[in-house]
Amino acid sequence: MNIAVIGTGYVGLVVGSCFAESGNDVVCVDNNSEKIANLEKGIIPIYEPGLTDLIESNVRDQRLNFTTDLQSAVRRSKVIFIAVGTPTTPSGAADLSAVYAVASAIGKAMDDYKVVVTKSTVPVGTTETVRKLICKETHQAFDVVSNPEFLKQGAAVEDFMRPDRIVLGCDNPKPAEIMGELYAPFLRTGSPIQVSDIRTAEMVKYAANSFLAARISFMNEISNLCEAVGADVEMVRKGLGADSRIGSAFLFPGVGYGGSCFPKDTRALIQTGREYSTPMRILEAVEAVNNDQANRFVHRVVNHFEGDLQGKRFGVWGLAFKPRTNDMRDAPSIRIIEQLLSKGATISAYDPEAMEDGKKVFGSRIEFAPNNYECLVGADAMLLVTEWQAFRNPNFERIKDLMRQHVIFDGRNIYEAGHLHSLGFQYYGIGRK
Length: 433
Ligand SMILES: NC(=O)c1ccc[n+]([C@@H]2O[C@H](COP(=O)([O-])OP(=O)(O)OC[C@H]3O[C@@H](n4cnc5c(N)ncnc54)[C@H](O)[C@@H]3O)[C@@H](O)[C@H]2O)c1
Fold this sequence. Notes:
The chain is an alpha/beta fold. It has 16 helices and 14 strands. The protein binds nicotinamide-adenine-dinucleotide. The site of nicotinamide-adenine-dinucleotide (NAD) has 26 residues, from α1 and α5.
């Protein structure tokens, strides 16, 4: 099938290359000409495990192309995915300007029947507006489909190739059939296609992300209470996770969730609730707890140093909002580092994949170390912010030799307190005694 994917970011690149991998002819479109020129040269703008190989092999086999020419991409394609960004506006609502601009451009380009799919995360009603905008520009027949994406960064290719479910929102059987054909190669293990009306499909995505964010905030709040009452949140987490009614995913306490989805999507759903006079009280609490979590971490550092961070030097391990991605959008590391800088601290940071992104955020305001050990030279404390695999079992003897003071603030509870105490470190975890 000929497919166009408009918006060549984290989602568009994965969607485009995975559909190419299953034999389709895919063109990925972006209005960022530098990004497209780089992709044409084989320079992949993001880090996502497995993605580079997938892009390279599909480009080589001529099933995957990149262009800025939306019109010709639309004309050659039967299915067109809109995968542009939907960032937060100051009110908390999703900014739909890119989705709407693309919808109008698709309408103008249309010369035959097309299925236009909203893959971007969009508030309820957006796909209907996409239909109206296209209608204004064309008399051609077309269908719109809501097909939210559930991949997680860090395992995006894997998730797309083996989805738990495919959600389709449409209002007649024809586009559902076409989409079913497209997704069939990914559903051979029996994961379902769930077809609903368009509004319901749009809602599923926000409900899913909000629920996952709620689990994290719930666990963070429990961890705060564990600290107050002298309980160990790690045992509480395991106790909860072993309950088959609860499950163990997304229960890890830490410095708060970040990234381009959870903060933005919870805010957008809160905003939708306000618009429809249905306050999302749980989500408001989820957001408030999350906003406080990085502050609590900084507070712990400040307390340890008795309120004075002037001249203190901290080695920060991890900048990306989570492991296995370079993405720093809304990353807790930003909130933490900004606060420490404002209190007079010096920061040296290291991240396996997000160094370039970190330089864009902080410029010369912090130092960037060539590896995680150099990051700790002369440090008064180590701050573990992102739980990369490479940080899990470091050589603590070597670390001890490098640091000025032997203090570790573990924002993800990846180290064993007893072990670190026995090595002579002062250790602070989250929600632990
Ligand atoms: N990142 C994730 O893990 C994830 C997961 C599921 C869903 N989503 C949703 O998918 C959407 C895209 O997210 P992302 O992380 O890929 O964003 P992104 O910012 O990485 O990519 C968006 C791309 O769209 C391009 N673009 C913007 N306006 C355009 C236009 N008018 N014409 C052509 N291209 C345009 C940008 O240049 C950019 O390359 C968002 O709605 C997001 O909420 C993201």
